[in-house]
């Protein structure tokens, strides 16, 4: 299992990137960063921590419903050079242990110096300090000031440092070393490619390495640490971003599941049968910025941010899906486990588990069969059906939705109890709530993820089998076929692309998390030669991801540039920042510099 492997530490990039061209490309960045570090701080860094961004190939807005997703690490990454701080005329020895001097290669991010505060606490105080984080018995506690209301670049550095301090420096016998760090990266911020998670993972690795605490740390433990650390900046992640950044391997994606617990399975993508017939992923930034960026990973339903747009977008979708799960379980007369009662709203994945009636974990084939069956019954969530039960005759149009009063009535709860369970922890604004449409997207998207995984697994044995998809929301559904070992890789790529197209259409029409620019960008991508194209990330802006024949990448990018209005006139680095090709890449690691 990838999670049981140790966090890798390399002394040669050729061990990371066997391809000479790729090694040279990344080697230049590592060398430049090391040289810049020495120029600024007067000494060579001891380590460079590296964490990639990620792209979600399929499975959008279903993680907080506890359904599996299918991300992959991208080649773009965050690099943090670090070294113990030595005394010099320009950098005198700090008076407090663990002081950090943090700089960024991007001039707009100003240098920062901060020192963790040490507090000696009792065990009882420590246990009450923060219920959200894992805790050990400790005699001292560290604190770093992070203002969640106005996050700065160094907030993510502090978040990574926090977990290292309070996991590895709990004894008064040992203190963290003062550190210089220099941050660089090429993961576009706010694009849905998880630059913030990559920053926290890289920060965690850097502080582990420079304090000589990496020995014995396994990848799975690092994932949990990074998830906990990112909570410090108000992001309660389900673990997809961190797992993809840490566990990924080249040419593979991850099938990540969240129920009954977080787990990750490496799945190889289909390989070309002939040279030049492979595919790459092309990420394109719509250049539409949405305030949803601050709430894209709040999948544990706490610490929701109150920013413009969140109340009518991400937060609203979470509430709609949670209420839909309760209503659907009532309509189907399902008995949910005690954990999914009045104090913890059930998710659609938990409803499906009760519907299938098998003990967890449920195998992928059984999940797929259960999804196909339950999709035939979700018509009970249509507005007309819910109104009919309370004697109201309304429009049969499924787009109409239900009012707050109708939704409360359908839940079987009193108004006060409903608001306590579903609205006391989040602000939402809507006159109509779309229980049916949101549920249909989540369940069909969960089915597409399983089909995507099945196709990848089958293609590695040259036996491709796609089951009929009668529940697809798009004419771009994957073909129903069973092909022999003579099937070409092109057929596999076309089937994957069809699933991606159907995913985007569902996000746009049913979940309504796209925007005109993303719809235009994905359509241009399909017409420019992509097998498939869809939004990635929370939507309402951000990036698209397209599956493109490797031999046609340059032509594809040129066509998209000429047709997408926001890309016209961009050249060189400016163009490369908004549209770029990547293959599923290697996960996080530490590079140790030697004399």
From TrEMBL:
It comes from Somion occarium. Belongs to the GHMP kinase family. GalK subfamily. The keyword GTP-binding does not apply. Keywords: ATP-binding, Kinase, Nucleotide-binding, Transferase. PANTHER family: GALACTOKINASE-RELATED, MEVALONATE KINASE/GALACTOKINASE. Residues 36-84 form the Galactokinase N-terminal domain. This is Galactokinase. Residues 493-565 form the GHMP kinase C-terminal domain. Residues 165-248 form the GHMP kinase N-terminal domain. Residues 84-106, 467-488 are annotated as: Disordered.
